[in-house]
Design a protein that fits this description.
Strand order of the largest sheet: 3-2-1-4-5-6-7-8
Distance between the termini: 52 Å
Order of helices and strands: HHHEHEHEHEHEEHHHEEHEEHEHEHEH
Pfam families: Rhodanese (PF00581), ThiF (PF00899)
Number of strands: 13
GO cellular component, one term: cytosol
CATH class of the largest domain: Alpha Beta
Low-confidence stretches: 256-276
CATH architecture of the largest domain: 3-Layer(aba) Sandwich
Domain Rhodanese: 285-366
Helix content: 25-40%
Radius of gyration: 21 Å
Organism: Microbacterium ulmi
Shape: globular
Structural class: alpha/beta
GO molecular function, one term: nucleotidyltransferase activity
Mean pLDDT: 88
CATH topology of the largest domain: Rossmann fold
Length: 368
Amino acid sequence: MPFPPLVEPVAALSDAERARTARHVILAGLGDLGQRRIAAAHVAVIGAGGLGSPVVLALAAAGVGTLTVVDDDVVELSNLQRQVLHRRQDAGTSKADSAVRAAAALSDTVVVPVRERLTAANAAGLLAGADLVIDGSDLFETREAVAAAAEELGIPLVWGTVQEFDAQVTVFWSRPPAGAAPVVLADLYPPGSVGAVPSCADVGVLGALCLQVGSLLALEAIKLVAGIGEPLLGRVLVIDALRARQTEVPLRATDAAASAAPARTAAAAPAPAGRHPITAVGPSALADTLVIDVREAHEVATGMIPGARHVPLGELLANPGAVEGPVVIVCQTAVRSRYAAEALRAAGVEASILAGGMEAWTASKATA
């Protein structure tokens, strides 16, 4: 359902800004009022890398009033395959400063560069005053800090992640408008459930997919600011770039998230009956249970758990009810498997995941 707009509009657009954003102003459902809300918005963008780059460009082009861009990193040549904010001559310079330069070439958007690392200690202070936050960071520790701060402040968190050829996009919000159930990061990843996640430096990432996901993140932000469309709150959009598939996975509040976040009241965030965190099991639990490997064909070609059945993630998400439980889901690092298990459980199928994925299973066999 559409949510009320996040911000009050500016009184009027300048003649120059009205001309620059003319295609928004005449857009039915957005119009002059929506564009004035965009002009009033303050969006915090965490990371000016593969996801933050298209986000900053899209929101500056859209005419967002203020962008706070948080990134303590500098531009490297290997970034340029996907981080379209930056140029070759920017190598060695601050990514946050590069965002200021790129946005200024598009619009009068005010970009506030923050050249420091976001941590649990400073996150709430850095995000204070923003109407919403977009997380394009690449460390899960940072993502948890951003999520905790957004939850504390009660502002929407537009969230996306990309690895190799796969991506996910969703919206978290601890205090959404009346009639909408709160959903936070801990509902997707309960505390302590995520181990080491390989970076794009380890496994690579498709640059064009970063642009697609960054555009989706910017779109979700615009929808929330202007009060149009249906935000992805309570839904995870899973993208399989190689198969050109996009699948929605339902996401609901869990008991684990509620216990990890005492600031959320029971009245504001009731956990649906029978909902529990996804169970992660070790290799010893695989002997008498069907194992489903949701990796792609090129990944399973390097080896599978003996007796496992191969069902690519996109195929499983397209028809989760076709699977008979109980099953244990495995992927490379236990990231994709969690989405698969959530979809299966929503379809009434008993499902758990292999903790640490194939990387953990391979390591256990090497030390056996």
